[in-house]
Design a protein that fits this description.
CATH architecture: Orthogonal Bundle
Largest sheet: none
CATH topology: 434 Repressor (Amino-terminal Domain)
Number of helices: 5
Structural class: mainly alpha
Helix content: 55-70%
Shape: elongated
Number of domains: 1
Oligomer: single chain
Low-confidence stretches: 1-5
Strand content: under 5%
Order of helices and strands: HHHHH
CATH superfamily: lambda repressor-like DNA-binding domains
Radius of gyration: 16 Å
CATH class: Mainly Alpha
Number of strands: 0
């Protein structure tokens, strides 16, 4: 996998995770309680928060729901730009 994709994954993961950490702290929920609400082992949330591991998409959705949040996808690039970049053999981010 190209380094630019790996770096993007880490950056996006860190942004999401910090929002979740801030929300959990604001709601005064422990990582143990949050893990129980999500339905994962009690050590998994601290791993996610420390960025040792990134959650899978399903767990990310459950995490957001447990914190009273939702994840929303929106179009970042118009279809023409995506197609133009694909013809060049890269994604719009690269």
């Amino acid at each position: 996998m190209p380094d630019s994709i790996n770096n993007t994954k880490v950056d996006l993961g860190s942004e999401f995770i910090q929002v979740f950490i801030d929300r959990r702290i604001a709601l005064q929920i422990t990582t143990e309680t949050l893990a129980e609400e999500i339905g994962v082992g009690e050590r998994l949330v601290p791993y996610w928060e420390s960025r040792e591991r990134l959650p899978r998409v399903f767990n990310l959705l459950c995490w957001a729901e447990a914190l009273g949040m939702e994840l929303v996808l929106k179009e970042k690039y118009n279809g023409e730009e995506v197609q133009r970049q694909r013809r060049k053999g890269r994604t719009p981010n690269s």
